[in-house]
Design a protein that fits this description.
This protein starts with a strand and ends with a strand. Helix content is 24%, strand content 29%. It has 355 residues and is of the alpha+beta class. It has helices at 61-64, 87-100, 108-121, 197-202, 204-212, 258-269, 281-290, 327-341, and strands spanning 4-5, 30-37, 41-49, 67-69, 72-76, 82-85, 133-142, 155-164, 175-180, 217-220, 236-241, 244-248, 274-277, 293-300, 304-313, 316-319, 351-354. The model has no long low-confidence stretch (mean pLDDT 97). The protein has two domains: 4-164, 2-Layer Sandwich (D-amino Acid Aminotransferase, Chain A, domain 1), CATH 3.30.470; 175-341, D-amino Acid Aminotransferase, Chain A, domain 2, CATH 3.20.10.10. Strands 1, 2, 3, 4, 5, 6, 7, 8 and 17 form a nine-stranded mixed sheet that branches. The structure holds 2-OXO-4-methylpentanoic acid.
Amino acid sequence: MEIRFIKRNNLKVKPTDESTLGFGKYFTDYMFTMRYAPKLGWHDAMIEPNEPIGFELGASIFHYAQGIFEGMKAFRDVNGEINIFRPDENWARMNRSAERMCIPKFPEYVAEEALEKLLELEKDWIPKTPGTALYIRPVIIATRVMLGVHSSTEYLFYIILSPVGSYYAHGLEPTKLIVEDYYTRATIGGTGEAKCLGNYAASMKAGEVAERKGFDQVLWLDAIEKKYIEEVGSMNIFFVIDGEVVTPALVGSILPGITRKSVLHLLRENGYKTSERRISINEVIEAAENGTLTEAFGTGTAAVISPVGLIRYKDKDYTIHNGKMGKITKWLYDSITGIQYGTAEDKYNWIQKIK
Ligand code: COI
């Protein structure tokens, strides 16, 4: 498919202080867009100025949230080259989310080519400071104007780019999580394993309550028994219990994270004992009390590897590893970022280079 290009006249002023980038505050000059219509399929691919575009308010995305997204990062590596981390995994997951949300699948080779072209064009936006990156946000939204509750017949696929620092304002300082035992993020048979817009909207109430109490995020439990740990909403969760690195199994209500998958691979390749299984909150609390819970960390594209320093459950606080980053967490952080920034060998071919 041909990708058209529309040039903009005036370029934006780029942020100069990379220490204040934060997460998702700035957006680059250009975006990629592509439309879907029944007779045409995916068509009209173009790179155009990232400027407001108009929609009729009857468009179904504004009513029923039929939309999906992804998150990836482009890194400026130590040799000045541009690396993307496992983009093929993101495109494949996005098409799985599309299937769940009745959105027509898109050709992954077009998305790949579009992203390459967009990054070549926007490479000066990739920040250079260690720990920073250009965040890539591909999205598909339903654009047909209609109020009936049916899947749309028209869609917009877009990719926007944002130079970012750490996801958490406090950087690599261990996060504080509060276990949510009333609200629910997802349930089996629902949309929990799809990266769809509504999952994130549904998580905001609990997130807001948590933040008001001084916590970074919510640790979600399963919807049925309120007993088993699921994820953190913007990251998957891992615990080190009695020397074993454990993470909840992908039972259908948990996002199949790409950093999660990479971490499990690295751990197994390096001889760590790991397991993906049901983990009850009681097991974690018991392990925290008897000293066998030695580390906890979250994984995600935005969050990378984020140490967890404290968990509150039923009004009681449990400090993990004295509120400091543990050894395995640090090793994983160094290993993943080493591959991303080119300071470690890319043994598993996880990096795609951009010219
Ligand atoms: C990511 O890690 O890229 C995510 O999509 C999580 C979040 C920022 C919504």
